[in-house]
Design a protein that fits this description.
Glutathione S-transferase Yfyf (Class Pi), Chain A, domain 2, five-stranded parallel sheet, 10 helices
């Protein structure tokens, strides 16, 4: 079932005016680099998730313009209108305006960018950001706990940077960091277990072999009391460093291939098959957890995949609405829009 029916943009990045009908299950946008293909996906993501995956509003605003407007028509006759007047952004749904997209109007999205194919060898912060966004979509409570943890962490770190700080000064922030940090750790480990339950089977369906792959959480899951004890034990060290040395903000995710670290042991093709498997699992998990089929946005990744993996990608997402950008139309598809 389709979710997106039409996209209308005004002054959105390089688009002075742009319109796209998404009547088919798969919509393909073809154009040269820099022609604004990704901006169309960005507008859809903004309408479904309430934020951009690329930048802030002033960066989205077309040069020389004083406002932007994105109108996304959904198949249930609902319209999401996003406006930015140069100072603030607003969302309008069925005539009701708000500064943020209401949670009830958010819709799951699987976004696949070329950089995702390099996730295995990227930085820990990149991997944390990637899985944080996935886990937010899986469960609103994760996003709430992470936001409150980050707020408490900032306050704790600000105190640690002061010339004179006593252990008692940190107590209230230690309590909040321990409470929300322990919840974030628990949910990360829990969600990773759901991914790992499907990882090897999905990989083998692509690679057609008997290799084994998994995701490991590089961190320590502790309960609230143990977390509090660690923060108190690390007081002198944290004062010396000027920041908190323990917590989910320091943790990482490691891809494992045949019981070895994938970064360095898996070939480029094997790594890409692992990422494809992860993307297929994302769609399955989001559908199960949220109860809705996610919209799949594929941003210019066909040039990064061989023919076999291209076909696997399209075949595995056939049951979802796909909106795809590419510099050239893959042989298995027609063209809906050329830029």
């Amino acid at each position: 079932m389709n979710v997106i029916e039409r996209v209308d943009l005004r002054n959105f990045r390089c688009h002075e005016e742009f319109a796209l009908d998404c009547n088919r299950a798969t919509t393909l946008i073809v154009g040269e680099n820099g022609s604004g293909k990704t901006s169309v996906l960005e507008a859809i993501y903004l309408a479904l998730r309430g934020k951009s995956f690329k930048g802030v509003d002033r960066e989205i605003l077309r040069r020389g313009a004083d406002f932007y407007r994105a109108e996304i028509s959904l198949v249930d006759a609902q319209k999401v209108i996003i406006r930015f007047d140069g100072a603030k952004k607003s969302f309008e749904i069925d005539g009701k305006k708000s500064l943020r997209l209401p949670k009830k109007n958010r819709y799951p999205v699987v976004l696949f960018e070329p950089d995702d194919l390099y996730l295995v060898g990227s930085s820990p912060s990149r991997r944390r950001d990637y899985f944080d966004e996935l886990f937010r979509q899986m469960n609103d409570a994760y996003g709430v706990a992470l936001a409150k943890y980050n707020k408490a962490l900032k306050q704790r770190n600000d105190l640690l940077k002061e010339e004179t700080v006593l252990a008692d000064d940190l107590f209230s922030w230690n309590v909040m960091c321990a409470h929300y940090g322990a919840e974030v750790l628990h949910r990360r480990v829990e969600n990773l277990a759901k991914i790992n339950a499907e990882m090897t089977d999905n990989y083998r369906s692509i690679a057609k072999n008997n290799d084994v792959c998994a995701l490991l959480y590089v961190g320590k899951e502790v309960d609230e009391n143990e977390y509090m004890a660690i923060l108190e034990r690390n007081f002198e060290r944290d004062v010396y460093l000027g920041h908190s040395s323990f917590g989910p903000h320091r943790d990482d995710y490691e891809f494992e291939f045949n019981d070895k670290k994938a970064d360095g042991s898996a070939s480029r093709g094997e790594v890409r098959s692992m990422i494809l498997a992860l993307k297929f699992i994302e769609a399955q998990i989001l559908e199960t957890e949220v109860g809705k089929k996610p919209v799949v946005l594929l941003d210019d990744i066909f040039s990064e995949l061989d023919d076999s993996r291209q076909r696997h990608l399209v075949d595995n997402f056939r049951d979802y609405q796909m909106i795809i950008t590419s510099t050239a139309a893959p042989e298995m598809m027609g063209v809906d829009k050329e830029l």
